């Protein structure tokens, strides 16, 4: 236990300014997403761009690819959430997934997991010695799925975020990104509240449609 605590303290001391900025903008981004506030995307872009740099610097190709994907999807989500109909109401609303959408997300997850796992297994030999293919593949694929569903305002995006956060806490810790590991612990708690909030919003949306 003392060893673990010492590793944690050493990691905190070695955390750079950029990582602190990335962590705090990431937390702010999740806060905005819980509130269904479009600021989730511009604030999130600061987080993802910094993490691309940090991940490439640390030869963490799996994490770099996730954050590159986040960056692209943040731009896409920003455009989608900003769309309004002729009455100036948002075009995309918080909603539950039907059977078709559940099928889409599991296929989406499986496809990305397979691609990432085999890519990292190959790259680990020469370019990404810090990769843990099965764990990186799971964390990345769940994150990819969660981000895609969030652009569509699907409640189930939070389930995938929960899975990403649970996987990322030990993953970043063993790779010596201790402050980032704590960051994912905070995101895990926030994801629970995000899920509850979006479930309420989706239910309210359903009630209004059926009224």
Task: Write up this protein.
- It is globular, with a radius of gyration of 18 Å.
- 78% of the residues lie in helices and 0% in strands.
- The chain is mainly alpha-helical and 211 residues long.
- The protein has one domain (2-84, 93-210).
Percent helix range: over 70%
Uncertain regions spanning at least 5 consecutive residues: none
Largest sheet: none
- Helix and strand run: HHHHHHHH
Shape: globular
Helical segment count:
8
Total strands? 0
Strand content: under 5%
The span between the termini is: 56 Å
Average pLDDT, to the nearest integer? 88
Q: In terms of structural class, how would the helical and strand content be classed? A: mainly alpha
Radius of gyration: 18 Å
Number of domains: 1
Nutshell version of this structure?
This protein has 211 residues and is mainly alpha-helical. Helices cover 78% and strands 0% of the residues.
Layout: helices, strands, pairs:
Layout: H1 2-13, H2 17-34, H3 40-57, H4 61-82, H5 99-123, H6 133-151, H7 157-174, H8 178-210
Helix pairs in contact: 2-3, 2-8, 3-4, 4-6, 5-6, 6-7, 7-8
Which properties best describe this structure?
211 residues, mainly alpha, globular
